Amino acid sequence: MTTPRIRVPSSVKAGEAFEVRTLIDHPMETGLRQQTGQTGPRRMITRFEAHADGEPLFAADFRNGTSANPYVAFIARFTKTTTVTFLWQEEDGREHRASQSITVA
Question: Which CATH number goes with the domain that contains 21?
Fold first, then answer.
């Protein structure tokens, strides 16, 4: 159910700015929706982080108003080949991770 998707160029020139796009398939249920007369369970992603070779690159906190399947895009720039690790954290402690290597030519 929670499938992360990442779109980055496979290679970039040193110092070139490029867009990083991520999307995760996630219901983002607030626990307020009525389903057959009862409220469904709450299931929310509360934090997104991106790390470049272990160093913080980008972070965002999500709240109740975040839609299902949250999409995040940001600009990055590297001077050397880098592995970017993406982390989505749910409020109940579950984590979803993905990594992508970006070659700097």
Answer: 2.60.40.10
